[in-house]
Automatic annotation (TrEMBL):
PANTHER family in the cross-refs: DUF484 DOMAIN-CONTAINING PROTEIN (PTHR38765:SF1)
Keywords of the record: Coiled coil
Species assigned in the record: Chelonobacter oris
Protein name as annotated: DUF484 family protein
Coiled-coil residue spans: 41-68
Length: 230
């Protein structure tokens, strides 16, 4: 206990007297600090090494931010031709093909839209695999979405079988975004779905502004391709 108190007292004294080592420069070389990679260092070497480590971490963080900015810029610019192709799509199935081609070009496994049966009028041109039961989906929404309109991460096998076809397996991580307008009978009428083979591709800490902008674009075109139940 006394050693802890003494250590605290020493630390406090040095904080209150930052010029201490100017008056006792010989201690800079005599005091030793153990470094995880470089072994025992003098106090001066330890300070320099700490500064180098901080600079390296800062540079890595700047590189990460720079790469993220470049990635986001490429992604946002990719929305321009996608919007044009959506506009040219005559029906829902055409829009799905456009979305899947765009998704594949980005290196993702799957990109699609699932519709809730109680929100849209059924049509022969809507593939059966694109209908989704709201009650069944609520289990996933409550477990994964919380109060958000999106979820990025992994799913259990049971959740995957509800949202994906057998030919989609194996798959790693997913990105879901609820679609729907205020005037709709339900708070959400469809789900925008993306899947990647890598479990680490989509995760909770990702920035989602791009996903929501894409979701707004898809929402606008659903009204042109489908008839919503009133």
């Amino acid at each position: 206990m006394s050693e802890a108190v003494t250590a605290s007292a020493v630390a406090e004294y040095l904080q209150q007297h930052p010029d201490f080592f100017q008056h006792h420069p010989h201690l800079l070389d005599e005091l030793q600090v153990t470094h995880s990679e470089k072994g025992i260092l003098s106090l001066v070497e330890a300070k320099l090494q700490r500064q180098r480590d901080q600079l390296r971490r800062q540079q890595l963080e700047l590189d990460k931010i720079h790469k993220m900015a470049e990635h986001n810029e490429r992604m946002f610019f990719s929305l321009l031709p996608l919007q044009q192709q959506f506009t040219q799509a005559k029906q829902f199935s055409d829009g799905l093909n456009v979305l899947q081609e765009w998704t594949t070009a980005l290196g993702l496994q799957k990109g699609t839209v699932l519709l809730f049966r109680d929100s849209w009028l059924e049509s022969a041109e809507i593939p059966a695999a694109h209908w989704l039961d709201r009650t069944a989906f609520e289990i996933i929404r409550l477990e994964r979405f919380g109060l958000q309109r999106h979820y990025l991460g992994i799913l259990t096998h049971r959740e995957k079988t509800l949202m994906f076809l057998p030919q989609d397996f194996p798959l790693g991580s997913v990105a879901f975004c609820l679609l729907g307008k205020r005037k709709s009978r339900h708070p959400y009428t469809a789900v925008l779905v993306f899947a990647a083979k890598d479990e680490r591709h989509f995760h909770r800490n990702q920035e989602t502004s791009f996903l929501h902008q894409l979701a707004e674009m898809v929402e606008q075109h659903l009204d042109h391709w489908l008839i919503e139940k009133l």
